[in-house]
Amino acid sequence: MALPLSNLQPIAAFHVQQRRFPIKSRPLARFNHEKARLHFFSSCKRFNYISPVKSASVNGYPINKDSLADNERVELSEKLKKWVKFVREILPGGEWWKLSTEGVEDLISAKPVTVLRALKKMWELIAQDRWVVFTAFVALIVTAVSEISIPHYLTASIFSAQSSTIALFHQNVRLLVMLCITAGICSGVRGCLFGVANMILVKRLRERLYSTLLLQDISFFDSETVGGLTSRLGSDCQQVSRVIGNDLNLILRNVLQGSGALIYLLVLSLPLGLCVLAICISLSTIMLIYGQYQKKSAKLIQEFTASANEVAQETFSLMRTVRVYGTEQQELGRYEKWLERLAGISLRQSAAYGFWNFSFNTLYHSTQVIAVLIGGMSILSGHITAEQLTKFILYSEWLIYSTWWVGDNLSSLMQSIGASEKVFHLIDLPPSDQFTAKGLKLQKLMGRVEFVDVSFHYPSRTAVSLSIFELYYN
């Protein structure tokens, strides 16, 4: 809004200084970016218009349209760089997927436990009841063979009914019913026996770990916290409970079924079988990478959980001290720090599982498309029949799903072993010399004890706890 001017005397010229105009009146300036003109609204018409300017200035530095456009282009390029960097970080293999070991470097510095070594340790624990495991494996083999034969007789029954071959239809139906009953009975026996073996494994693993900890030297308990040890006995040992009853059981069953399906496909049609085999190899490669990542992340989750339990146990055991000094918020902050790190690892695990499912579904549907295309051309050329193509599609789906189950349970197995690595390291610890040394029988005992120039420190602490001293005792 224009302000009225009073007592304004006409002047011929006025001096313009930097950043202000020494005008007695108080005109209101308005800058129009589109026309780049400067207008003054005043009661005096003498100052209504000033010739258009070529540029504006801020703090004495000129700014024009070209410089504004350059700034916009720079900002746009910076945003694009940030988005490219973000996409590169979240893609598989980026910085976001790297698992931080801050705070637990000493705990995970030990040599990793391989799958074979862990399975060997488990077999030592259940070797006394090996008949349970052997019977479960026999039931597993019978179940796998029965289930892999069902699609063949199912397809044969359908096409024999279509061709009105009654005798062949009845024979296929009888075999199909017998296979279904056999597979159901053996599957129940297999599940029961693997569950029993699993229970024996967890029980003896906890017994072995507890007995090993009891025989350690006192200095061992100075370096290990009670919360960490109880976490190993509890949650870490519980992770092993899925190995025999779930992981090994399903891995072996699907390996047998997948091998049978692959042999059947190669015999039925070699080109189609090789295409499905290539897809299964790709899926297995992704499976191995995913399994290794799950193993490392599971190990870190157990370490972070043990650290969080340690903080909680320290706080609860010293609750009176915490209340006196008013450090409740500090203790809550320590606990939340480990919870945040646990949430970060779990988020990456979920994202990795999403990529694994994406890969499986993509390859699985690719198999269906390839089977229909190549199989349809083979039918048109007369190389295979519609019955053979139907069997091929059923067995190719069976093979892909078997590969997926093997990968999923193998990653679960590696996750369980990674979570229980600390347990396998602890059960390998040798007992203290106090329990293994035979000792020495003294021939003569005198009642004088002398300590001369003695200093000592705790094994878990490098600083000297007591200086040199001398002590005589009779």
Describe the structure.
By secondary structure, the protein is mainly α. It has three domains: 1-55, no CATH class; 97-433, ABC transporter type 1, transmembrane domain (ABC transporter transmembrane region fold, Up-down Bundle); 436-473, no CATH class. Helices cover 68% and strands 7% of the residues. It has 13 helices and six strands. It has helices spanning 65-90, 115-126, 130-162, 166-214, 218-223, 226-239, 243-268, 270-317, 319-325, 328-381, 386-419, 421-427, 433-436, and strands spanning 28-32, 37-41, 56-58, 61-63, 449-456, 466-473. The strands form three sheets. Strands 1-2 form a two-stranded antiparallel sheet. Strand 1 (28-32) and strand 2 form a beta hairpin. Helix 3 runs antiparallel to helix 4 (166-214), helix 7 runs antiparallel to helix 8 (270-317) and helix 7 packs antiparallel against helix 11. The radius of gyration is 39 Å and the shape is flat. 23% of the residues are buried. Residues 1-55 have low confidence and may be disordered.
Topology:
Layout: E1 28-32, E2 37-41, E3 56-58, E4 61-63, H1 65-90, H2 115-126, H3 130-162, H4 166-214, H5 218-223, H6 226-239, H7 243-268, H8 270-317, H9 319-325, H10 328-381, H11 386-419, H12 421-427, H13 433-436, E5 449-456, E6 466-473
Antiparallel strand pairs: 1-2, 3-4, 5-6
Helix pairs in contact: 3-4, 3-7, 3-11, 4-6, 4-7, 6-8, 7-8, 7-11, 8-10, 8-11, 10-11
Unreliable stretches, pLDDT < 50, 5 or more residues? 1-55
| CATH T-level fold name of the largest domain | ABC transporter transmembrane region fold
Question: What fraction strand?
Answer: 5-15%
CATH architecture of the largest domain: Up-down Bundle
Major sheet description: 2 strands, antiparallel
Give the radius of gyration. 39 Å
Order of helices and strands: EEEEHHHHHHHHHHHHHEE
- What is the overall silhouette? flat
Number of domains: 3
